[in-house]
Amino acid sequence: MNNQPTEELKRSLGFWSAISIVVGTIIGSGIFFKQGSVLDSAGSSTLAIAAWVFGGIITLTGGLTIAEIGAQMPYTGGLYVYIENLYGRILGFLAGWMQIIVYGPAIIASVAGFMSILMANFFGLGTAWRIPLAVITVLAIGVMNLFENKVGAIFAIITTTGKMIPIAAIIIFGLLFGNQHAFGQTVTEVQHATGGFGVAVLATLFGYDGWILIANLGGEMKNPQKLLPRAIILGITAVLIIYTLITIGILKFLPANLIHRLGENATAYLATKAFGAIGGKLLSAGIIISMMGTLNGKMITFPRIVYAMARRGDLPFSRFLSFVTPKGKSPVIATLFIVALATVMMFFFDPDHLSDLCVFTVYCFYLLAFFGIFILRKKNKGNRPFSTPLYPLVPIIAIAGGIFVLVSELFNDPAGVLLFIGIVIVGLPIFYAVKRMDAKRM
């Protein structure tokens, strides 16, 4: 591709930036807003806690598997690069297309949608302000990421540190001052669990999602072969422990039936009830900052997939989408592209529904990547910067978890699944059209 620019991204991310992006990208809206839906689906507090633990174990086995693959392919693009190297250009393109057209914008829109609920409550605004607040926040964080990657990385460190304050407050207050029994409560107001344990686990996976996005920055890490596995594994493990403790803390403080009635507002109610009006406001502000950190992490990583695909000439207008600023080395056009798509999705989708479909879509390609570890083991015998422990048990659990996710969502929402699969498949004619245009120019 002679017409592609020669500017490349800057390798400046160290361990604390990487771990902050992993933890900051994962811990966002899911743990605060999914408590009600997880509890409703599970039917009891014990199964709800088990769902968060089980979702964390599935995520950790997936992270351990991807860590081995990513250490051997430490390039910008993450899952897009892995799938292409393992299965060829077409499936690689669809993995990238899925992330930049469906998954990335949808997950950003979903997190922004959840965050706007808290923001509207915080400022005493009506529901009509939710979409405008979400759009303004996404635009502001998008603009910040038009500068070099250190700006977003510093913001990730600040927000990840800041989000630990409301998390610690909820855990400590719930465990020490809660009068409920965290285990054994039943949601009596739900005659039948709305979806069962499988759908409950699926809801928790939205809360854990985002761990793989650090792989998109492989080309910007100082020592990705060592740093990428450490960031993924330590980040997911920390989040698993935090999520379990938060869930137990909330269930010790609020009865299951009340969590069911409050739904998405359960955490905001807990904050006000536990710490008073002012304390509740401060805690809500901390949670909003937490979500901003999540949005920032996603805004850093998804444009890198656009950039990586455009560098290969896989997208229409690749020359523009692959542009990076000469000084800051920031993929500005790719960032604006993701911001625009996310903004459109905010107007047409409910954030809760959107989050579940995001998880389904990305797990289609996670599964392919998980199988890829067996392919790489045959190709690169004994030549690995990182080896997945307990192989092949860990990859097998990751694969079983991925199949579980896909089957659960397929039965739960077949229409939504078909819609998102259709959007992914639309990428095929675009891929061939771009290749035909390239052939004519040569």
UniProtKB/TrEMBL annotation:
InterPro entries: AA/rel_permease1, AminoAcid_Transporter. The keyword Hydrolase does not apply. The chain crosses the membrane at residues 12-33, 45-69, 90-123, 129-147, 154-177, 197-219, 231-254, 274-295, 331-348, 354-376, 388-408, 414-434. It is a multi-pass membrane protein. Its main location: membrane. It is found in: Membrane. Keywords: Membrane, Transmembrane, Transmembrane helix. This is Serine/threonine exchanger SteT. It comes from Limosilactobacillus oris F0423. The lineage of its organism: Bacteria, Bacillati, Bacillota, Bacilli, Lactobacillales.
